[in-house]
Structure formats: C-alpha cells, structure tokens
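Input (structure):
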C-alpha cells in the first residue's frame, strides 16, 4: 500500500457534521490500492461502551485516488476515531500523529470531532434540494409593457448586440408565469434588475430601485408574490464586487478626486481617477473602466450593500441571492452578508459565482452553493466526445469529493448561462447529445438550472449571441425538445432518490464512451444507461433482481441469468427503476 497517498484531516470536507446527530468521515487512498477501510469509532471518555467499527464505502474515485466515506451517529455528539486500511493480510492505522502498523490503544492519538454544535452546523435551505431553477435575463425574456421601452428599442427577435435593447420587462415575466409552471419550474434566477445604463445590468447605478424599463419595485413585489402563489422561489443577482461608473458616489470621486468623501469606497490607486493607456487608475472588474470595484472592507460600503441585501429579502420577499464575481470580494464581507441575509430569512439560498474549487466559501460561514461551472465543463466535454467513460467517471468522482454532502445536494448545476455559448450550439446542434447532457443534469446530485430558451431549442455562440430574445411563437419552438425537458423535470421532482439519493458509477471503461450509473435511496433505485457514441450499442451489467422497469414508460425490463442487457440507439439513453422494500 502506498502510504504517501493516504490522507485525512479532522475538518472541512474530510470530517464534518451533516446534521445535529451525524458526522461524515472521508479518507483518501491510492486508486485500486487497498481492499477496505474501516473506521474505528467511539467516545474518548467511555470507549468501552460506545466503540464500534464501520466498514467505509468507496464513494468515488478519480484518476489517482479512491475516496472512502462513512456516516457516524455518535451517542454523545462527540467522536474519537481512527482508520484501519487493509490490503490482504496487511493493515495500517491512520492517526492524528501519523500512520502506524500496530493497533493503537484508544483513544491515544486518535482523530477527534470534539462536539456537534448546533450553531456550527452548515445548514442549507431544504427547498433548494427540490428546486429546478430557470435563469431569466429579463431584457430578453418577454416585452409585456411596450410603454416602458427604452429609447431605441428594436423589434423583438432581432440580432442581439452588446448594447441594444428589445424591451423585455417584469410584466413580460408575469405574463408567462403559467408557462414556467407548465414546464415544471419551481425556482427562478433573475440576472440583475436594478437601475443601470446597460442591457445586462451588471453595472448598477442604483441598488435600491428596479430599472424603469423593467417596471418598478412594486411590480417586482407582485412578480414575487405571484411566483410564491405558484410555488416558485425567486433569486436575484447581487453585483457587490463593482458598480457602474455612473453610481453617484463614484461620480463624486470623479468630480472631487481625493477630496471626495467617497474616495475610500473604491480602490483608487492614483488621482485623478481616469483611464491611462487603457488601464484605469482605480481597480475595476477586469479592466472595464465603467465598472469600478467596491472597497468592501470599508465600513460605509459594507453597511450600504448589506442594507441592500436585507431590503430585497425583507421588503420584496425574495428567496435568495446569486453573488456576481464572488471570489473577488473579501471573505469578511461575505461572512457578514450571510449573517444579515440569514437573519432576514433563514431559508434564503446564497449562491456564489466562483468558477473553480470553492471549498473556502462552502464551510458554513459564507455561501450555501456556487455556480458549478466545473460540472458543466466536464459534462459538456464528455458528451461532445472529449473523453472516455472512465475519465468522465473519475472527473465526476473528484467533483463529488470537493464539498460536504449538504453542499453537493444544493450545488448550482448548469449547462449554460448568459456567460457561455448556448447548450445546443456547444453540442454542435445535435439534440441527441443535448439530451444526454440534460438527462445527466437531472439525474445527478445538486440543484439543476435551465437557461431560458434552452428548452425550446434556442442556439447561440458566446455573448452577445447567447442572449437572444425568447421565442414565444410555438410554431418556431422545438416542442419535442420542450416535452423532453418537461418529462425530465417531472421525473426528478417526483423522485427524491434523484435529488438526495446516493450516486455511483456502475460501469465506465477506458476507450469506451458509454456509462452506467445509479441513484438510490431507501425507497427507489434508478440506473441510467448511456450510449455516448454514434453507433448502436448493447450495454450489459450484473443485476440479480427481475423487478426493474423503464422509469419513463413503466415497461418491465428483466435481466437474463443475472445480467441486464440494454440496447441503445446512437447517443441513446434509458432510465430503469425498481422500488425497494
């Protein structure tokens, strides 16, 4: 056994309280290097009467490591533990002070989880586990009130540009809530709605007022109320990293320079605040001079922005915030942000925009979730033929091991957004590949999100082409694709195992693009079979019971002599299920 590959620390994603009675333990070993891992657990003050051994499950693997996992319910909310790692007749013990070959007398040098404190629990909103989000760019969704169109508004459905307007507004959203409900949506994510000179609204001038060509604060309140009446949650976009250069405090800095009372609201490197050879003399989002960066460590800035966050939660009753450019804002600010938001609504959902490993923000003191772009990148690369099944399985396993389980259950999974090319375009306009990716999205752990229009076949390359107007003429929509989306949403919503059940790759091989995986809880067991190749395939996997059926049609599907054989068309899939107990 390769001892150097073995790893555990008694914190973060390796040892954490899942709920008030349960501690999750994880340990890492070299891939395919050990036979089993056993957690030896007990209470350090009464080991004799509380100790018991737990055989750990191999929860995931990547290209280098296996990850073992176990849930422990200690009698007294505290835990001492070690790991026995075995291969054949050889065993070693992982301890807080190193690896030993002799059995260590408990609890000396054992790892410790000192106590499950209720106040320290990382609790995520339960409703987010059941949510199916729909992302809306209001300017491009529907024009319900032409009277508030900005000057120069172009006819609906024209070519999107970086700076043009088509008149979409909140009344348009209100007019189409029945359509969202029919699709099965139960949560909406709005890109920014506040006063801003741009069509995208990520350069905000007034954080406390809805943009007039979208409507007003009262109309947003009506939209939220109508959404709630239909069982639809509402999440807004918080742009707290930067603002517009037309934001009044920054205008004051431009006018008064170092004598401005707002100079410390921003990161001014030299006065006057201006752009020299294309580079601003103040910090910005990227190098965009029209988006000056806030100094969120400044008390006045923090007070202003936290009041904004609290206002929309308390007064308009929104259900959460998506945090733009979240990784470029200081952690102290986000810790205070969480306190304010959760005090206003303990069930508010906080999603950060971070495009890489985000564990730093997901330890219970900042975000509930992040936009899971590593997930979308992995899924789209696989279903575009960029890797074989075993590589995909390893990448997915690594993603699952990035975060604690409660985060995995509500991590914001997406296949496209306003910042990426359209899903249909990414898969080369091949609906079969698109469907495979969407099936995986809705049968995987996490909170799925649909970008408006993907469900009816909107295409588009990178910004601004990915921000086309929604197509409302059914004759111009792909209704077969719409029905597919509605079917997958319904399957997920009606089966808790697809939202909270365990995930395992059952079959994935080198140089083979096909996969079989499972989702299961104590009630129902799903297996998903995918032929990610351009030729027909028959996939086979051992299955002893004969009570399987097609999860979408109800047709019985029986194995032969303990082997299930599933015939699949090119880029085809099949979902099987069986009820337990």
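Output (sequence):
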């Amino acid at each position: 056994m390769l001892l150097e590959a073995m790893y555990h620390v008694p914190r973060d994603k390796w040892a954490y309280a899942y709920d008030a009675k349960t501690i999750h333990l994880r340990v890492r070993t070299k891939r395919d290097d050990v036979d089993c891992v056993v957690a030896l657990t007990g209470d350090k003050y009464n080991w004799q009467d509380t100790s018991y051994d737990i055989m750990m499950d191999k929860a995931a693997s990547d290209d280098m490591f296996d990850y073992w996992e176990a849930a422990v319910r200690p009698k007294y909310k505290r835990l001492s533990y070690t790991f026995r790692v075995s291969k054949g007749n050889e065993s070693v013990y992982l301890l807080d002070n190193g690896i030993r070959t002799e059995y260590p007398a408990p609890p000396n040098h054992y790892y410790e989880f000192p106590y499950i404190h209720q106040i320290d629990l990382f609790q995520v909103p339960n409703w987010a586990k059941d949510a199916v989000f729909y992302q809306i760019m209001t300017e491009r969704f529907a024009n319900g009130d032409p009277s508030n169109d900005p000057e120069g508004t172009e006819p609906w459905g024209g070519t999107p540009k970086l700076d043009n307007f088509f008149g979409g507004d909140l009344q348009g959203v209100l007019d189409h809530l029945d359509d969202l409900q029919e699709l099965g949506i139960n949560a909406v994510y709005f890109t920014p709605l506040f006063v801003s000179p741009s069509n995208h609204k990520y350069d905000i001038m007034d954080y406390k007022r809805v943009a007039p060509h979208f409507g007003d604060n009262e109309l947003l309140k009506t939209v939220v109320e109508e959404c709630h009446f239909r069982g639809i949650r509402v999440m807004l976009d918080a742009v707290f990293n930067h603002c517009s250069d037309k934001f009044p405090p920054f205008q004051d800095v431009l006018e008064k320079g170092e004598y401005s009372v707002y100079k410390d609201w921003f990161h001014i490197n030299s006065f006057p605040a201006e752009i020299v050879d294309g580079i601003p003399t103040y910090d910005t989002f990227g190098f965009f001079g029209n988006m000056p960066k806030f100094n969120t460590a400044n008390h006045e800035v923090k007070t202003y922005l936290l009041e904004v966050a609290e206002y929309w939660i308390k007064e308009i009753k929104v259900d959460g915030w998506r945090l733009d450019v979240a990784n470029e804002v200081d952690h102290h600010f986000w810790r205070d942000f969480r306190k304010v938001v959760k005090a206003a609504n303990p069930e508010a959902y906080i999603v950060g925009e971070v495009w890489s490993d985000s564990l730093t923000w997901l330890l219970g003191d900042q975000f509930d979730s992040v936009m899971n772009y590593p997930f979308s990148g992995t899924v789209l690369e696989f279903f575009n033929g960029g890797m074989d099944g075993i590589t995909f399985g390893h990448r997915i396993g690594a993603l699952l091991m990035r975060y604690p389980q409660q985060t995995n259950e509500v991590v914001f999974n997406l296949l496209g957004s306003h910042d990426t090319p359209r899903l249909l375009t990414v898969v080369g306009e091949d609906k079969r590949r698109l469907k495979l990716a969407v099936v995986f999205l809705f049968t995987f752990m996490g909170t799925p999100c649909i970008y408006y229009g993907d469900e009816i076949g909107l295409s588009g390359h990178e910004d601004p082409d990915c921000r086309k107007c929604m197509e409302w003429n059914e004759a111009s929509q792909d209704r077969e694709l719409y029905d597919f989306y509605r079917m997958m949403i319904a399957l997920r919503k009606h089966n808790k195992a697809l939202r909270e059940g365990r995930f395992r790759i059952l079959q994935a091989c080198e140089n083979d693009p096909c996969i079989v995986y499972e989702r299961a809880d104590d009630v129902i067991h799903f297996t998903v079979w995918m032929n990610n190749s351009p030729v027909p395939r028959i996939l086979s996997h051992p299955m002893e019971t004969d009570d399987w059926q097609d999860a979408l049609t109800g047709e019985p599907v029986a194995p032969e002599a303990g082997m299930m054989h599933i015939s699949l068309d090119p880029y085809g899939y099949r979902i099987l299920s069986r009820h337990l107990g």
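Notes: The chain is about 25% helix and 25% strand. Residues 3-120 form a domain with the Immunoglobulin-like fold (CATH 2.60.40.10).
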